[in-house]
Amino acid sequence: MITKAVLLAAGRGTRMRELTAELPKPMLPVRGRPVLAHITAGLAAAGVTDFLIVVGWRADVVRGHFGDGTPHGFRVSYTTQEIQDGTGRVVELGKEWTGGDPFVLSYGDILVDPADYRPLVALGDDAEALVTVKRADDVSKGGAVFINERGEMTDLREKPAPGELTSPWYNAGVYAFRPSIYEWTARLEKSPRGEYELTDAIRALAQRGGRPVRCLELRGDWADVRDPEVLAELNR
After folding, report:
1. Which tens digits make up the pLDDT trace of 86-134?
2. What is the CB neighbour count within 10 angstroms for residue 57?
């Protein structure tokens, strides 16, 4: 079972406008506590004991809330993302900390039903990684995940353009990785958007042969706290 998790909480979240003038987006409150606190609590209930939080904008707020994790019943370490150059490179900040262990990776603004973390941390020997997915009519705001009849990921396309081949499966932004992911993040080149994309590394991992990258459908509620409208709806 996976006992380590890397949480990406460095961004300000400019779409939140004035809401993140003093707070990083993952620390915005949902139902009375920060988004990031919901994530850590859910993963801890599933068996995760050690967290690495990648901080940046207003890192002091994150550190002030979690400290070393002791009051919350788990251990917390921190690393700082100095350069905002995409999700692919930021994952590498956890390489030394994760060592040879598998780990969960979650964006700090993704809310998941706590029950859905349990199958994620139970990464089996039949998979090199797990990618969580949700069914969606519109995948244009995120990644379209292509899945074969065995539940294996065959492709992953970030923000597919109108008319581009698409899929009913939406990348839900929470993963379970083995250290092999670092081999592919190290090879990344910048995407047309000018960033190092984690999804490019996952696609390469899935298409290299060997153990498959499997997809895990999230059964419970899920939310990408992407903008003030989503935040308001969650707090309504």
Report:
1. 888 899 999 999 999 999 999 999 999 999 999 999 999 999 999 999 9
2. 20
pLDDT tens figures, 57-70 = 999 999 999 999 99
Distance in angstroms (rounded) separating the CA atoms of residues 45 and 131: 20
Domain 4-234 has CATH 3.40.30.10: no
pTM of the complete model: 0.95
Nearest to 58 by CA among 85, 89, 95, 19: 19
Residue 175's DSSP bridge partners are: 105, 131
Domain spans of the chain, in order of start: 4-234
CA distance linking residue 164 with residue 203, whole number of Å: 17
Distance CA 179, CA 128 (A): 9
